[in-house]
């Protein structure tokens, strides 16, 4: 029996920005070691439908693209498949050229076929030389007449290791429009629905998806496949835990596919993740990459890891991300040909085998932040690796225009990172985690950002109280964090169009070439700057004139922690550009919070071994299905 591993597909949307991810009819050159587009021949008019594309006479189109090249290295490493067949259906005279790459991105041609008329070309390909990396792809060159790619797929005759379907779990809070669009895309993808058992839509909001325009039609189309579940807002962890819980009751499901709400999906990616999960030699988590919904060729996440000693998440090869496929295509990006192994994958899109959930439990009751990383670390320790699979991705609202480290989410950033470290760090006292955490507080204090410091202090107090607090405040921690903002005027975003805010000294403008690096103090200069600033803020009262009116104004990208502290007050643009925040130095708050953060971090370091033992002992109960079932009943 022939099994389709990957279909060659083209964009659902007629968006020119998407084309480089699917087909590459452009000519590239390399100037000063950088890829440069020298002539553009990309025309959406040549995309005929979801599976068909026209190749204009005398032109070449490459399908060595993110969504249509075959990630051979990942299939060789994680599955027992050792031969795939590329089948290409064409009409018109053309030449099919098949290429491969290695882990260094070096291209090699491995086959050439000339075709005429209506032709079906099958090319067997061995998966035996891709240990460190590499893709396989094909180009089509049209001869004296136009040619058409009528369809193509990568297949195998080998049976998968498991045959179960996946249930999809979509968690949403007041994103009904996005959810209806996602459901519509699912209902139109018949080949995807063949591997889907049930779609669980966990609606935790007040703007209900069921009341959104278009929902009734798409619900009727999906029929019994769709199940909408309403529950109070338990955050992403509570919504995804509910999807895990419901999927465990489905005898036909071997996987649960978690999806965020504010996304645009590529249905073929969802199908690929399930197929890869079926073929994996041992059960693995299959993660999807994240493209920017508002800048669609830009890839933000490839393989994500957690550094042990600071215990902080990051992209592998952080300095090379994000990657813009509108600037450099796959074939011109050697790094993207390496096989990259991940520690975890964000839950914007992640396929989890039920075997893993049965063994390690459900999500940590963390509300948001670190629940995905913690689960993947926990699963990894139990033998379930995470594979962030190329060619599997969606578009998600990125964090470019956000700064959730200074809003109510600062509580969850701090608490959940420390809890995850208590559960999984092998470094004594969490390594550099507590030092880094204390430095974060000092930076906020120097920048007159007192609200996140207050939230982070509450986070440390809760961690010190013991693991029982995580379940106890699951539904209340977020409202409490947001309510706390009322006591901190700097949280107000001033947007009143009838009143223009001005500063006394005007806007501080800094010209630079390397953002975040150009004049940041380091070494002894950093230590002297920090000591001098901390003492100055402790000793000196702000000028009353600067309290009455902001002293200076900063753009968001110029308001760095080594600049703002030089002033008594500052007018700073909000992250999304919708207004401005006013930061004003408050000596009394500063003194109280500085003493508290030092005291709390010392206490946490002193009690780390005891807390680590307590949290690790409590973990099986916190993530158990029984515990979550009780939470769902209590909050029903």
TrEMBL record:
The keyword Glycosyltransferase belongs to this UniProt entry's keyword annotation: yes
Top-level taxon of origin: Bacteria
Residues of the Galactofuranosyltransferase-2 C-terminal domain: 433-633
Signal peptide: none
Metabolic or biological pathway: Cell wall biogenesis; cell wall polysaccharide biosynthesis
Gene Ontology molecular function, alphabetical: glycosyltransferase activity
Protein keywords: Glycosyltransferase, Transferase
Keyword Chloroplast: no
Domain Galactofuranosyltransferase GlfT2 N-terminal per the UniProt entry, residue ranges: 44-156
Family to which the UniProt record says this protein belongs: Belongs to the glycosyltransferase 2 family.
Record's protein name: Glycosyltransferase
